[in-house]
Amino acid sequence: MSTPPDPPVSALPDLNDAESRVPGSLRTAAAYAWRLIAVGIVVRVAFSLLGQFHRVAVAVFLGLVITAVLRPAAGLLARFMPRPLAVATALIGGIVLVLGALALVGETVADQRTGLEKEFVAGIDRIERRLEEPPFRLPADAFDDLQSRIGKLLSDHRSTLISTALSGASRLVEVLTVLALALFCAVFFTHSGEKQWQWLCDQLPERARQRVAVGAGAAWRTFTGYTHGILLVAATNAVLVGIALFALGVPLAVPLALLEFMAAFIPLIGSPIALAVAAVVALASKGPLVALVVVALIVVIGQIEGHLLHPIVMSWAVRLHPVVVALAVVGGAVAAGVIGAVVAVPLVAVVWSVYQALQGPAGEPA
Fold first, then answer.
1. Quick one: average pLDDT of 313-323?
2. CA–CA separation, 131 vs 283, rounded Å?
3. CA 53-59-62 angle, 5° bins
4. Among 38, 94, 249, 271, which residue carries the largest CB count within 10 Å?
């Protein structure tokens, strides 16, 4: 049985001619599109894997933060004592400092507890009276009804609250486990981080080692610079807030200053949230005038942080536009809550610094 003859070459479609009819802009967009899709798939898979091991990832991140903070002190102490003893001294000193700050906060709250209860009760009464006056004109029994509703809600959902408290206890165990793992990692990162990194580089192909070394050096410089900078910014904000609240006579000035210190690790939105809590405390304890002063303090400290501290302290370590910082914080918060908001900015800064470092001559393969 004979096969049909092949069609003449002139009858076949000219692929080159068909491709030439597609506009160049469309071909370029298609080329970018499939590459972006591939990158998006890789990023999605990476975040899914991190989500499965998020406690380990958080512990390693905290270990790197602790290493960035303690490494200079350990290096200084290592000039006068053996390296292991220097690392242990720096770590124990840091733990004592943190526990001392927490003890100071606890002692302050305990000392002011009786007075605070009276001030808050009086403050809530003042707020109720203000809301009963023009222009709000709320009925006098509105808050009594609200209190009874809250009591009924708590009694109706008692089992749910108990289960939530028990789950909170299990979360506390998880947090302590993550902290223990972070300290464990920080000890070895601080003591022999170079040897560990050298071993990892030795496992890579020889032609890739230079680029990896250049990118890793840029990443670590940016990460340590960001860590030191954000600590300085947070400490400055906490001191300013503590002095202002103490001068205004707002109770819990020290705990609120510590809250400001912790909140400053979330750029742009952390400090306003902490100062909003301070404004509520001032409203309940000292009245609306002092609360308005605290609200004005939010604006002043925001201006100092945005136009003085961040440009001077952070510009040499993190060269990101404020819009990029805001998008990173919001995106991190949406993806992983508070932890994502804290990690997002240093992660974006590290990725950008690695990209820039690999574009230079030093990042070219040998």
1. 68
2. 13
3. 140
4. 271
